[in-house]
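Single-chain item
Fold in token form
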Amino acid sequence: MKKIKIIVLFVVLFVSYGLVHSSSNDIQIDKNLLKKYILKISLPDVFPKHLEIITPDHQTYVLQDDTQGVELYPQKEFEKLREITLDMNTLVGTTWKDSKKIKEKIFTESGNYTIYFADELETEIDNSFSLKKVIYYEKR
């Protein structure tokens, strides 16, 4: 009987953790502004502390990761945000090429871009608390 109680307790804790980090608390993208090349992201109450954008050719551009020295906002301010508005025409992110840290314009080709928030950007997607949304960008 004691083993059953312990198993039930673990199940309850696991389900509770899943509810706190469930996709119902997902990021939202304003589709009307997206047509005007403005990326407006509405954030849930609890969201991961780092942000990157992944391009159609799988290049990653870090926008917020204080552990890598890349910040759009001071980290404490970033963690309190409820929305982020970015100009896709001029948005620059940090990437690494030939082991060199460089800044480049992100939205340069038409295709699907992944907006990716995670507690650990360099970890497999399933191994870190993360939220993502795929958007389509049409180059002018």
Remarks:
- The first helix runs from residue 2 to 20.
- The CA atoms of residues 6 and 114 lie 40 Å apart.
- The helical segments are 2-20, 31-34, 75-78.
